[in-house]
Design goal:
By secondary structure, this protein is an all-alpha fold. The protein has helices at residues 2-32, 41-61, 65-74, 77-81, 89-103, 108-119, 132-145, 149-158, 164-181, 184-201. The structure holds fe (ii) ion (2 copies). One fe (ii) ion (FE2) is lined by residues 75-76, 89, 121-122.
């Protein structure tokens, strides 16, 4: 009896891991496309960090690691796929996630949990987070910015065509909004980096 249960668990884990790898491929491929406004850095310097921090926060909050990993992978998919969707990418992203996950026959209740995480991930579009998983993904999205300062500068100069002062102010504003959105547990993880960024980027006088 025990052996049967063990092999069932192994099979379920196998398909779950395969699905996550496939979703990662879909998102990474979208990031590689020339049409991706944010460039491949969206994958290497943002989404991969969001996945890492979402799993870390899931451990801290006792949240479902599978849901947070899937949602973290897909949370910005809409804006990577089509920059025109950026303004409401949380809404479009939730719809696209449902389409993708249905292809994998993912259970509807889990699809709804992933969609809720994507709908709530943005600091600039506050929404009530009803689950621990949504808290993890929103925290992770902000935490990731503190590991990607060089790539955010690159985005400011090369894509947004900002000058040095504009880029500096834009980035400091982004980091401040990210900080304000964090849970107390996530602030603990990143407080040294936040203080350092204020020291380096804030109140610059010439
Ligand atoms: Fe986003
Ligand atoms: Fe994001």
């Amino acid at each position: 009896m025990t052996e049967v249960i063990d092999s069932d668990i192994i099979i379920v884990d196998y398909f779950k891991n395969m699905m996550i790898k496939e979703i990662a491929k879909i998102v990474e491929n979208a990031c590689k496309q020339k049409t991706n406004y944010f460039g491949y850095g969206a994958w290497t310097y943002h989404i991969l960090y969001v996945v890492k921090y979402a799993k870390l926060m899931a451990e801290k909050f006792g949240a479902d690691e599978e849901i947070v990993e899937v949602a973290a992978l897909l949370h910005d998919y809409a804006s990577v796929k089509d920059y025109k969707l950026y303004k409401d990418h949380h809404l479009h992203g939730a719809e696209l996630a449902e389409q993708i996950l249905k292809e994998f026959d993912y259970p509807q209740d889990k699809i709804e949990q992933v969609k809720h995480c994507i709908l709530c991930h943005r600091g600039s579009k506050p929404a009530q987070k009803l689950t621990k998983e949504a808290l993890c993904v929103a925290d992770a999205d902000s935490l990731a910015h503190f590991d990607s300062i060089s790539s955010l500068f690159c985005l400011a100069f090369s894509r947004h065509k900002m000058n040095v002062d504009e880029a500096n102010n834009w980035l400091m504003g982004k980091l401040e909004r990210s900080w304000n959105k964090l849970s107390p547990q996530a602030k603990e993880i990143v407080k040294d980096k936040y203080e350092a960024s204020k020291l380096l980027l804030g109140n610059r006088e010439r």
